[in-house]
Amino acid sequence: KEKKDVKIYNATEDAIALADALARNPADCDVLVDILPALSRDQMFDLRSEYEGYCKTEEHDGNLAECIKLRVGGVFGEICYATVLGQYESEGYWVERACSSNLMALSMLGGALFGRPNIEIQEIKDKFRSVKYRSSLTQLVEDRLEVDQARRIALVALAAERQGESDTRPDEYRDSDVDELHRAIDGRYDSQLLWRIMLRSDAQLREVLKEYTRKYRINLPLKILWMSYDPALVIISYILIGVMNRPARDAQSLYDALMALTKSELKESRMSLENDEEWKFQLLASILVRAHWDRRHLKNVKIEYEEKYQSTVELDLVNATTGYFREFCLGLVRTET
After folding, report:
1. More confident residue, 81 or 3
2. Which residues lie closer than 8 Å to 89 by C-beta, 6 or more apart?
3. What is the pTM of this model?
């Protein structure tokens, strides 16, 4: 059998190219678009280390993310910055952005924190860096997130106390959850239901959904989503849809973010941090950066997207965005090797 050549990523060339691009005035954004979206998590780590070794001086710490933050502005700079942070550090950044906007708090927090296994939550917390908040993401949320319900929900997620996937429970736990969810459908919603759902494992929730469907013949997550704008119920639906079909849920989140931008009159020239609708671009960026770390999952998201919405992610990105931000987004969703 023929052996396939394994290509080993050499970060030196990219580190030099980025250093040169960021030293120019203005920065050469084409280089950032060409290099950053295509890198895997491990390759990004190698690039950051190589860049630091190449650029570190007595006056300069050689931090690639901070260099981008200083030299590249607007939403393009922000998506570049978040991508360079890597898979878990970027989630802490999106939580931080959520804390500064009541408009997008739950939407941004959802992808970053809800429905994740404990080990990933711990990784996100460990990677968070802040002098002001003593590198504690929990402290940041307690101090900065103004919306009471969003803050409480985020703190439950950050506690990283979800049931383990191998932790089986007696049937009465499942039956109790089924009964509580049915009461929510009837409008008799107990606020404690959200905490219970957030702490159940995916395996346990699949059993709950299976039993609920058998008993009531209802697509529970969609029913909850249609019946109420209560943020807690929306989060329950988000978690349950993810348990049933994560690519379909993420395709829906991506579609909603793109449609919000398509209906907006914003142009790239108006993309500044002071813009009231900046959060729409930030939400889209967070979804794309998160998805691109897992190319297999991203491919499934794109398949679900095309089947459900009769369009492609790429086409809708072209219609919703412009300039370097658009090119970077298209690079993030490229799945062919």
Report:
1. 81
2. 124, 127, 128, 129
3. 0.91
